[in-house]
Amino acid sequence: MTGSFAPPRRDVGVVIVAGGSGTRVGGGELKQFRWVAGKPMLLHSVQTFMARPDVGTVVVVLPSQYAGDPPPWLFQCDVDRLLVSLGGRTRSESVANGLDDLPDEAEVVLVHDAARPLVGAATIDRVVSAVRAGRSVIAALPVVDTLKQVDDDGRIVATVPRDNLWRAQTPQGFPRRVIVDAHRRARADRIEATDDAALLERLGIAVEVVRGSERALKVTDVGDFARVDALLASDE
């Protein structure tokens, strides 16, 4: 007698924010479209999340000039689980657009920056597990360097205690109703934020940290592309 097979519960929806211009890396090509470690940077993140059986939908938020005609390499992914959403004027608006496009089944929402191509499965597991337990969390790492506050001329003003300071990463994960409501209220109050956790913080909603990874560095300038290449080469 053969046992019945239950398909995985696909209750995770992912919004990958790739709507920025990436001007700091130079050149005419968008940062998230540039190749790094053998493929376009954005494709790393999309394929990583689609490798998870619990992910039902990945929404990629692209700048308006690309949303209607995405690069063809993006369709190397599972197109049945891929949606392309229109980027907004700000990061918060782009995320809100992506949230609007998630299907009803997405009860666990992850928001991820395309500029972090090396997010790992273990980090994603920690975020998803926390959200399934009803918590809002971000991947993050404790600050280990000494921090200096400086003035406009570069002179040190103070040494900032690093106790209890963490460096925010992505993915950031939330129960769907919580993040959707936070964005709705931020839009009504004309509030913008550099990450989604800040929108919950302003409402007094608890957000916790789970351990991220040093590998999940954010590609900000040209030198970071070489660092990503080196990290992947060290695995081979």
What would you note in describing this structure?
The model has no long low-confidence stretch (mean pLDDT 92). This protein has 236 residues and is α/β, with parallel strands linked by helices. Helix 3 packs across helix 5. 28% of the residues lie in helices and 25% in strands. A hairpin with a 5-residue loop joins strand 8 (147-150) and strand 9 (156-160). It has a single domain, classed as Spore Coat Polysaccharide Biosynthesis Protein SpsA, Chain A (Alpha-Beta Complex), CATH 3.90.550. It has helices at 41-50, 64-67, 91-101, 121-132, 176-188, 197-201, 222-233; strands at 12-17, 35-36, 39-40, 55-62, 82-86, 108-113, 137-142, 147-150, 156-160, 166-175, 208-211. The strands form three sheets. A seven-stranded mixed β-sheet has the order 5-4-1-6-10-7-11, sandwiched between helices. It has a two-stranded antiparallel ribbon with strand order 2-3. Strands 8-9 form a two-stranded antiparallel sheet.
Features:
about 240 residues; 7 helices; 11 strands; single chain; Spore Coat Polysaccharide Biosynthesis Protein SpsA, Chain A; two-stranded antiparallel sheet
Strand content: 15-25%
Order of strands across the biggest sheet?
Answer: 5-4-1-6-10-7-11
What average pLDDT do the residues reach? Answer: 92
Question: What series of H and E elements makes up the topology?
Answer: EEEHEHEHEHEEEEHHEH
What is the level-2 CATH architecture name?
Answer: Alpha-Beta Complex
Shape: globular
Could you state the CATH homologous superfamily? Answer: Spore Coat Polysaccharide Biosynthesis Protein SpsA, Chain A
How many domain modules?
1
Estimated structural class: alpha/beta
Measure the end-to-end span: 43 Å
Top CATH class: Alpha Beta
Largest sheet: 7 strands, mixed
CATH topology type: Spore Coat Polysaccharide Biosynthesis Protein SpsA, Chain A
